[in-house]
Amino acid sequence: MTITAVKTLDPVTVEIIRNALTSAADDMNATLIRSAYSPILYEGGDCVVALLDTEHRVLGQSAGLPLFLGNLETCSIAVEEMYGRTVWQEGDIWILNDSYLGGTHLNDVTIFAPIFDEGAVVGFAATRAHWMDMGSKDVGGSMDSTDIFQEGFRMGPVKLVEAGVETSVVELIRTNVRFPYQTIGDMHAMIAALRMGTTRMKELVGRYGMEQLDAARDEIFRQTEEIERATVRNIPDGVYEAEGFLDNDGINLDTPIAIKLRITVAGDTVDFDVTDSADQTMGPVNCGAAQAVSALRVGYKLLVSPESNSNGGSFRPMTTQVRSGSVLGAVTPAPCQWYFSHLGLLIDLVSKAMAPAMPERVASASHGDSMIITAAGFDTRFGRNFVTMEATLGGWGAWQGTDGESAMINNVNGSLKDLPIEMLETRYPFRINEYSIRPNSGGPGQYRGGNGVVREYEFLADCVVGLWFERSKTPAWGLFGGSDAQGPEVVINPGRSDEVRTLKANAHKVKAGDVVRLAVGGGGGFGEVSKRSREDITYDIVNGFITEDFAKTHYGY
């Protein structure tokens, strides 16, 4: 029951409510991860959750994938725009995975629900998680899809639960995916997270009342906006530009994909314009405009307010321009399976563009892509089909005063984790022969770029492998005299007569005993190479970050 709101709103109460909302989102996330059936969720954490207010603004969002920053609300807003405000009913739960609304690929499923208290909507709970298979033409997802209809079951927004009872949509999902037990289990984990969010939100309403919660929300949003505008105001007015290229779209392998960014700073506002980027492509590198906006928000936040949590007051100083029909603003029937490659590039381009104005805040480019490997087949040990997907770690760029970090997930994925070797070798028919830092892969500089990794798989059964590795033609660049990093390399059966070198492959057949060796690129260097101290170079050699020959060639050691 809602209590009478206290009229006086003091700073202590504001901070208690601020942290309570963040903790509520963390509880939701923990519920989802601990209840999930798929390793990509319970080990990798490929999910995000949020609480929203009645106007779909973020109250609290968990740590998760930055790529979904301020993005979950687009789904609940879409419902309201389609059906009106009165569509929200207590006990209903909605589901959506449409790439052109949510911005991502069909595997990223958003489930969300209104939160009611005493018959009135007091907010929304939302979750998004990666489902391993959506019934695409290839198990788990295709590297060579040419339209959205090849990529699987597309939903929404539709009701998953109505008045507390599951709808026929659940059966549609069950009959359209290859792993229904796992998929429905993950769906229920997401619903459990919504229930946790509902419980926590109603507890706050009961403790403080909506009047006081709304007042605290407004103050939290005001503070966030004020801090961000003050930072933007300190950036010199002007137009800042940068561009980069993806290797290709997976179909037209000789055609790089241009991503062009123009940033205009004027007073306490900043506009991000990507309208000059390439048209949507035949291959699956496209994304919906909502996801392009999210990537730009990540780049903005890294420079403007990296220390604070996001909320409805975040991003108010920024505007975005995304062209419909471009690779960053795709429309049907553009394929979107590997939508994130240009988004990692775009985040790096924000730093590159703003480097002249914010040299103390920017970093050189990172390895920049998720560097995906998938495997699918039949596991004779357990008598069942399997599919798995992993992002591979790489190096981050250096920045003023600090070397880049080695063996990190890429910038779009945040708290996503690589899957533990022990779990992989137990659940799937392959062995990890090597997992090591890749020396010399980071760019030289006064501050060295971080190194990527080497990860080698030996398959113990026949299966098919998918590969999506990017940024070989535009590897991580250095800034202020720092050098570029090495790009990625993938070798199938290295040193054998049937050796194959490729960065992208769809359903590539491997046999028991075959090996796939992944080598991920590093981050760019920062500052003049000649300024790196001999002590630091020696440290790098001793600790295996670079070889002595590399030190002689690049540093004159």
Overview of this protein structure:
It is globular, with a radius of gyration of 24 Å. Mean pLDDT is 95; it is low at 1-6. The chain contains eleven helices and 20 strands. It has helices at residues 11-35, 39-42, 73-83, 99-102, 169-176, 180-233, 289-304, 341-354, 421-427, 534-542, 548-555, and strands spanning 47-52, 58-61, 93-96, 108-117, 120-130, 158-162, 165-166, 238-246, 257-266, 269-273, 318-321, 372-379, 384-391, 430-437, 453-459, 463-468, 489-492, 500-501, 504-510, 515-519. Helix 1 packs antiparallel against helix 6 (180-233) and helix 7 packs parallel to helix 8 (341-354). The chain starts with 10 loop residues before the first helix and ends with a helix. With 557 residues, the protein is an alpha+beta fold. Helix content is 29%, strand content 22%. The strands form four sheets. Strands 2-1-5-4-3-6-7 form a seven-stranded antiparallel beta sheet, with helices on both faces.
What is the C-alpha radius of gyration, as a whole number of Å?
A: 24 Å
The neighbouring-strand order within the major sheet is 2-1-5-4-3-6-7
- Structural class by sheet pairing and helices: alpha+beta
Task: Give the biggest sheet.
Answer: 7 strands, antiparallel
Write the layout of secondary structure elements.
Blueprint lengths: L10 H25 L3 H4 L4 E6 L5 E4 L11 H11 L9 E4 L2 H4 L5 E10 L2 E11 L27 E5 L2 E2 L2 H8 L3 H54 L4 E9 L10 E10 L2 E5 L15 H16 L13 E4 L19 H14 L17 E8 L4 E8 L29 H7 L2 E8 L15 E7 L3 E6 L20 E4 L7 E2 L2 E7 L4 E5 L14 H9 L5 H8 L2
Parallel strand pairs: 10-11
Antiparallel strand pairs: 1-2, 1-5, 3-4, 3-6, 4-5, 6-7, 8-9, 9-10, 12-13, 12-16, 14-15, 15-20, 16-19, 17-18, 17-20
